[in-house]
Automatic annotation (TrEMBL):
Zn(2+) 1 binds at residues 83, 180, 208. The keyword Cytoplasm does not apply. It is an enzyme of class 4 (lyase). It holds the Pfam family F_bP_aldolase. It comes from the Bacteria. Zn(2+) 2 binds at residues 104, 134. Dihydroxyacetone phosphate binds at residues 181, 209-211, 230-233. NCBIfam families: cbbA, fruc_bis_ald. This is Class II fructose-1,6-bisphosphate aldolase. GO terms for molecular function: fructose-bisphosphate aldolase activity; zinc ion binding. The active site is at 82 (proton donor). It comes from Paenibacillus sp. SYP-B3998.
Length: 284
């Protein structure tokens, strides 16, 4: 099966009150773990690729790995640019074979964010590619971008609704109290904002910073209208912990397969637990 846009499964997720996971692809082992978990549970999913990961892996390798996963699995898989910083980056990814892009204009003024997002939507739609927009500022650390709690701004529901109406994005990430990275304490998610926005627009709300959010909060977010949830840090931690454990157990290991195999298995377990929590099992 070829890579698909998020419109192959997000409308169903919104209608049937489940969420599809975006799991970031950071290397081959991440890609394998994610698709293996999804095959086992017959779930659609999204490979998220940040600009930092693109620089690390190379755009050609990234697309080839995702296409191989789609062909092997037969599942509906979207290859999605995560937090694209410009029109040019989004177009580069579309030309290379990405089936979905996010334009993150949250650091621009509200009006400029709308203007730039509309440009991306117009170009992407002509290519059959889905687009995610973002409103408000999500705190935490992702790649080289760091936003402290003080400067994280919640999305205003009325602005989020207008943003959708003017841009026509296929899903909308709004800042509701989650953060990128792991939480020191418990997140304070504003479910009322999710619900108000979700009831007013026909596309799903996206929850960024899904790692470390308590299960009951995830379920409440989905019930309120979240249809896409991003997870990366939990996989990174599971991968690194498994590698560290393998190397600590045997200091003579030098074959990468000896420590990357348990790392991959650890990530399969994380992704399976998220797919089951999000309710996307058997929704492919």
């Amino acid at each position: 099966m070829a890579l698909v846009s998020m419109n192959e499964f997000l409308p169903k997720a919104k209608a049937n009150k489940f969420a599809v996971g975006q799991f970031n692809m950071n290397n081959l082992e991440f890609a394998q773990a994610i698709v293996d978990a999804a095959i086992e549970l017959n779930s659609p999913f999204i490979y998220g690729v940040s600009e930092g990961a693109l620089k690390y892996m190379g755009i050609e390798f990234t697309v080839a790995i995702a296409e191989a996963a789609a062909k092997k699995s037969g599942l509906p898989i979207a290859l999605h640019l995560d937090h694209g910083s410009s029109f040019e980056v989004a177009m580069k990814c579309i030309r290379a074979g990405f089936s979905s892009v996010m334009f993150d204009g949250s650091h621009y003024s509200f009006e400029e964010n709308i203007r730039l997002t509309k440009e991306v939507v117009k170009a992407a739609r002509a290519m059959g590619v889905s687009v995610e927009g973002e409103l408000g500022t999500i705190g935490g650390v992702e790649d080289d971008i760091s936003v402290d709690e003080e400067h994280a701004n919640l999305a205003k529901p009325e602005e989020a609704i207008r943003f959708y109406e003017e841009t026509g994005v296929d899903c909308l990430a709004i800042a509701v109290g989650t953060a990128h990275g792991m939480y020191a304490g418990e997140p304070n998610i504003h479910f009322d904002i999710i619900e108000q926005v979700s009831k007013a627009i026909p596309v799903p709300v996206v929850l960024h910073g899904g790692s470390g959010v308590p299960d009951e909060m995830i379920l409440k977010s989905i019930a309120a209208g979240v249809g896409k949830i991003n997870v990366n840090t939990e996989n990174q931690v599971a991968c690194t912990d498994a590698i560290r454990e393998a190397l600590n157990k045997d200091g003579k290991i030098y074959d990468p397969r000896k420590y990357l195999t348990p790392a991959r298995k650890a990530m399969v377990d994380v992704v399976k637990s998220k797919i089951q929590l999000f309710g996307s099992s058997n929704q492919a």
